[in-house]
Amino acid sequence: MTSRSGNRRKRDKTRSPRTTAKAAPPKARQAKKPTPNLEKSADTGSATRRLPRPDGVLPEEALPLILEVAGNADYALLDSGDGLKLERYGPYRVVRPEGQALWRPALPQSEWEAADAIFTGDTDEEGMGRWRFPKAALGETWPMKHDGINFLGRFTSFRHVGVFPEQATHWRHMAESIESAGRPVRVLNLFGYTGIASLVAARAGAEVTHVDASKKAVGWARENQLMAGLEDKPIRWIVEDAMKFVEREGRRGNQYDIILLDPPAFGRGPKGEVWQLFEGLPSMVAGCRDILSDKPLAMVLTAYSIRASFYAIHALMRERMAGMGGRVESGELIIREDETVGAGRAISTSLFSRWVAA
User: Fold this and answer.
1) Is the predicted pLDDT of residue 38 greater than 90, yes or no?
2) Does Iron-sulfur show up as a keyword for this record (predicted)?
């Protein structure tokens, strides 16, 4: 995550990307957005991936792009190894599983034993039952910050803690785009979870629509809005299946300047709708392209826990954004160990692909 003050101006650390200069002609961005000719799946009722290929020149591309998050006062990856990671969230040290940590820990065992919370996963109990607290029993929530925005960290039964620090690079890019637009900006945050991205966008001056299928997650997000003191900011909180919401917004003619997509590999909507990433993502990206405004700023897709390369979602994003101009940037989000205490190794947390306007 970014620090609360001066570090906000630091640029993301990236590997030098390969770029191509396939610029669209001046009128390419005004190309008519294709209306997907979708078929319905008998199993899920959602649109399948039989979509017409959009016309128009493909956007420029930049890849691989490695966006890195380093430690700060709000969050740090302290050490990792033996399938685990040791993190600091605010005042607490937390140990959670990390399958990519194939190496040995660099810090002594005593540093790991000083953890305040350890995810064990040894029961099927909901809530905090899958956590162990070696020092003292902790509450379900605790106060956290991201770049000066207060919110609640939370010990969940599925090992998450209410925030994904690696997303900070996307949040910074989004906030800068909103602040520099010089006009009102509408942001759609799909699969919005506990709403940190929505709060970042609202603080930057955007009108935000936050959508998640989980009533509990949206409730947490609303709590975070109060915690952040941003209750006067224009945020619509919506509990709905993301695909159905996008389809309805298309029918209504509603449009957005920035769209964030952070879909799970598998999920269910509030009415039992089934989401499977590889089946639903092509239609989701096509639907989101269709509700971008006439002067869009960005569309950002992040994918976790999937057996695919970022090249796959890069090709999908670039194809769907044909005729829009701009550039598609794709790669990985990584978190680097705090080099002042650890070995400075990096853990890749997710794949991403984002389209940005020229």
Assistant:
1) no
2) no
